[in-house]
Amino acid sequence: MNSSSSSADPARSFLSVDTARAAILDSLSPLCGWEKVAVRAALGRVLRTDVIAPYNVPSHDNSAMDGYAIRAADLDAGTDTALAVVGTAYAGRPFSGIVGAGQAVRIMTGASIPQGADTIVVQEVVRRSDDRVFVPAGQKKGQNLRRAGEDLAEGGVALAAGRRCGPAELGLIASLGIAEVDVYRPLRVAFFSTGDEIASIGRPLCPGEVYDSNRYTLFGALSRLGCDLIDMGVIPDRPDALEAAFRDASEAADVIITSGGVSVGEADFIREMMARMGEVAFWKLAIKPGRPMAFGRIRNAVLFGLPGNPVAVMVTYFQFVQDALLKLMGVTPLPPAQRFAVQAAFTLRKQPGRTEYLRGRLQRDGAACSVALAGAQGSGVLSSMSEADCFVVLPEDCLSVQPGDTVYVQPFHGLL
Ligand code: AMP
Ligand code: MG
């Protein structure tokens, strides 16, 4: 990848992606409200308090394999040892006796280790003849045991406050016998589209109109995040309509997300309205697509004024808004930015001074991975967004990309 030195760069007055991200995240703290919910209802929610293990998991030493519980000291180091099989231990139905010298107990995965035994020999390696089992040499004392507390120790923090619950967390909570957990209340997000040319689906388009797609991409992304949504529709570029929309949104929601109207355009009253109703900064970001963006507060609600172009909405949402919402939802620490180095399978020339997010498709070349462009890269082209499975992130100082250059990608898995 060809790079420039960034010193004499006229685009320096633009805010870098990292600076804007940091400014947003630093200004936010988690919501206060919380509730107690049943385990299943905690899916996608964020723990407000630590989950403490009330006892050891597993609660008793048990077998990791189907096989025989034996005493390692009984085994001959050089040859097979014959042991007498004196019983069977099932998961949930332990062997009640004691394993004495020269004895073995047939044992199933998950069964408690019988008293006297200290080692499990897997069934695949032994030879069984009536009530005798022949154990080959070379077994290690203590092998194939799961120790009490090896997963979670009694009294320890099983899950820390700030963790968002996924399938593994639900299972972990249930494995402790815990039926309810404290989670932050859902984040309430109001969103609307702006623009006189924007039409809602359900009626034919008039000349010059375009259907509203931003409310649908935002609906999808915000639903996945588990927010409570207030869809306020399309608001025309009229001061009274915008003022009413911002007033209603700020009364009902923790966060307001708008699209359109933040660039310097004649018919865009939205900047003026945002500035009058709250404390809002209008940023020129060193990013493509998605240059203009507004961030601030209207009354108690946090405001994200995203650009209007459909792909710019998705890029700015994923680079700036999503982590901010997670922070408000109580997630700590925030998940690290996922970026992977792969080989480029395309040629591109690029202006310096801005970070570019291209729509890419990962492809496998033998053991290696490369990335191709997913189609036309215009900021209004949603079809290539749908074809793509990652963003290719080209840093500010990159000037061009040649096939074989190393580039960084952010896979959509987990993002979109
Ligand atoms: P704006 O930032 O308002 O100047 O809009 C930039 C471009 O994005 C214009 O071509 C708009 O028509 C288009 N646009 C704005 N909002 C939407 C929307 N909700 N759905 C689809 N296109 C939009
Ligand atoms: Mg507009």
TrEMBL record:
<feature type="domain" description="MoaB/Mog">
    <location>
        <begin position="190"/>
        <end position="327"/>
    </location>
</feature>
<keyword id="KW-0501">Molybdenum cofactor biosynthesis</keyword>
<dbReference type="Pfam" id="PF03454">
    <property type="entry name" value="MoeA_C"/>
</dbReference>
<comment type="pathway">
    <text>Cofactor biosynthesis; molybdopterin biosynthesis.</text>
</comment>
<dbReference type="InterPro" id="IPR001453">
    <property type="entry name" value="MoaB/Mog_dom"/>
</dbReference>
<dbReference type="Pfam" id="PF03453">
    <property type="entry name" value="MoeA_N"/>
</dbReference>
<dbReference type="InterPro" id="IPR036135">
    <property type="entry name" value="MoeA_linker/N_sf"/>
</dbReference>
<comment type="similarity">
    <text>Belongs to the MoeA family.</text>
</comment>
<dbReference type="InterPro" id="IPR005110">
    <property type="entry name" value="MoeA_linker/N"/>
</dbReference>
<comment type="function">
    <text>Catalyzes the insertion of molybdate into adenylated molybdopterin with the concomitant release of AMP.</text>
</comment>
<keyword id="KW-0460">Magnesium</keyword>
<dbReference type="InterPro" id="IPR038987">
    <property type="entry name" value="MoeA-like"/>
</dbReference>
<protein>
    <recommendedName>
        <fullName>Molybdopterin molybdenumtransferase</fullName>
        <ecNumber>2.10.1.1</ecNumber>
    </recommendedName>
</protein>
<keyword id="KW-0479">Metal-binding</keyword>
<keyword id="KW-0500">Molybdenum</keyword>
<dbReference type="Pfam" id="PF00994">
    <property type="entry name" value="MoCF_biosynth"/>
</dbReference>
<dbReference type="InterPro" id="IPR036425">
    <property type="entry name" value="MoaB/Mog-like_dom_sf"/>
</dbReference>
<keyword id="KW-0808">Transferase</keyword>
<dbReference type="InterPro" id="IPR036688">
    <property type="entry name" value="MoeA_C_domain_IV_sf"/>
</dbReference>
<dbReference type="InterPro" id="IPR005111">
    <property type="entry name" value="MoeA_C_domain_IV"/>
</dbReference>
